[in-house]
Amino acid sequence: MGQVMGSERKPSIIVSSYMGKTYEYQHEALHSDRYISVLENLDIEDPDVVNCLIDQRAVEKIALIPTNHEARSCLMHATSVPSNCWEAYTAQGDQLYPAPNFRYYSSSRNRAELLKVGVDDQIREKSAELEEIEQRLRDLDPMSRTLQHDLAQHRTEAGVIAKQLEKLRREDMELRSRADELRRFEGSEPTNIDTLEDALVELEGEVQSLQSKRSDAHKTYSEARAAWKASSEEVRKKEDARKQLMGTADAAKEKLIQADSELQKVKSVSATNKEQIAAAERRCAAAERDKKLCEQKIEKLIQEAAAVAPDRILTRRGISAITNEIEAIKEQLEEEESRTESRETVESRYAQAVERYGDMKDNVGQLTEFVKRLHDTMRERREKYCILCEQTVLRLRLIFSSTLLQQNFIGRLEFNHAKQQLHIQVKPSEQNSQLQQDLKALSGGERSFSTVCFVLALWETMECPFRVMDEFDIFMDMGKRRVSLEMILEM
C-alpha cells in the first residue's frame, strides 16, 4: 500500500469473513412507505460487500429524505420517526439523527468529494471558477486604469509644484544676495536712513510674503507626495491582486485543459466500449439463437426419454456411462431371470414389498404425529410447570416473611431454578443494617428460628419432605422457643 499510495492518505482496510450470501437484515431494516434506505438505493451484486456495509455503517437503517424541511418535520418527533430508522441524510447532504435524541448537522460541501459518475461535473465547476476569475479581472481593469490616470495627474501636479518651489528658492536666493550687498555698502556709501529703512521694511514684507508662499507650496507638495505614495501603494496592491488572479486563471486554464484531455480520453474509451458492447451483443444474439436450437433438441430428447421413463433422474454422468450402465443392467436382469424365478413372480413379490412399505410408512407417519402431539403436550406441561413453580415460590416467600414477622424479623428467599440453588437472607430486628444477612452470619438461635420458619412455610405451601425435627430449639432462647412451638401447633 505504501508503494502504491506514496505520501497520500491511505484508505482504511476492513477485514471480514466471506459468507457468500447476504445477511437476513429485513426484520431490522428501515420500514417506511415514503422513504427508502441507503441499502435499497445501492445496486451491489457482491453479497460480501453488502454485509461489510451493513457491519460498518448499518446502511439498511439510514433513510434518504428529499428536503431538509421534510426531514426535520419527520425526525423531530418520536411519533413520526419511521421504524428502525437510526440516521437520515437529505439531498443537500445534511445529516440528521431522529428523536428522542434529535440532532441536525448541516453539510459544508456542495458536491461529491470521492464517488463521481464522470469528469463532466468537475469540468463545469472549473469552467465556472474560470469565468468568475475573468469577471473579477474585468471588474478590476477600469479601477486600475482610473488609478493609473490619477497617479499620472498627481505626478504632473508634483512636477508643477516642484518647479514653483524651485522658482521661489531662486527668488529667495536673489533677495538674500541683494540684502548682503546692501549690508556691504551700508558703511561706505552714505545713504538716507529713512530711505533705507523704508526699503528694508519693503524687503522684509516681500521676504515674509515669499516665505509664506514657500511654506504653502511646500505643504501642497507634501500633500501631493503623500497622495502620490498612497495611490502608488494602492496601485501596487491592485497590480499584485491582478497578477495573483492571472496566476489563478492560468492554473484554472491548465486544469481545464487537463480535464478536457481527460474528457477526450473518456469519450474515446466510451466509444471503444460501445463498439465492444455492440460486438458482445451480436455474439449474445448468435449464442441466444444457438441456445434456442439446443433447447428445441433437448426438449425433443426429453419427450422421447419421458415415453420410456416418466420420472426424470438428475445426474452428472456422461451419456456413454449411462448407456454402459443400462446395458449392464439388462445383462444382469437376463442373468437373474435365467437363474431365479420368473418375472411375474418377482413383480408380485415386489408389489407385496411395496404394500408392506406403504403400511410401514403410514405407521411411521402416525408415530411421527403422535410424537409431535407428545412434544406439544410436554411443552405445555413444562410451561404450566414453570407457572406452578413461580406461584409456589411466591406463596413460599409470602408465608416465610409472615412467619418471620412473629419475631419482627425481615427475610427474603432467592431461587435460582437453573442452578437449583436457594439463598435465605434474614435481618433480625435488633440489627440496624440495611442489608439482609445470610444464615451463616446469624447467631444459633436466630438461625434455628429462621430454619423453623422456612420449614413451616414449606409445610404450608407444598407436601414437605420433613416429618421430624430433632432438637431444633437447642440454641433458641425462651421467647423464640415459645413462638416456634405455637406456630408448629397451629400448623
TrEMBL record:
Q: What is its main location?
A: nucleus
GO BP terms, alphabetized: double-strand break repair via homologous recombination
Whether DNA damage counts among this entry's keywords is: yes
Report keywords, A-Z. Answer: ATP-binding, Chromosome, Coiled coil, DNA damage, DNA recombination, DNA repair, Nucleotide-binding, Nucleus
User: Coiled coil: which residue ranges?
Assistant: 116-343
Q: Which GO terms describe its molecular function?
A: ATP binding; damaged DNA binding; single-stranded DNA binding
Database matches in Gene3D superfamilies: P-loop containing nucleotide triphosphate hydrolases
Tell me where in or outside the cell this protein is found: Chromosome; Nucleus
**Would I find ATP-binding among this entry's keywords?**
yes
Specify the domain of life of the species encoding this protein. Eukaryota
Q: Which GO terms describe its cellular component?
A: nucleus; site of double-strand break; Smc5-Smc6 complex
Family in the record:
Belongs to the SMC family. SMC6 subfamily.
Q: What is this protein called?
A: Paramyosin
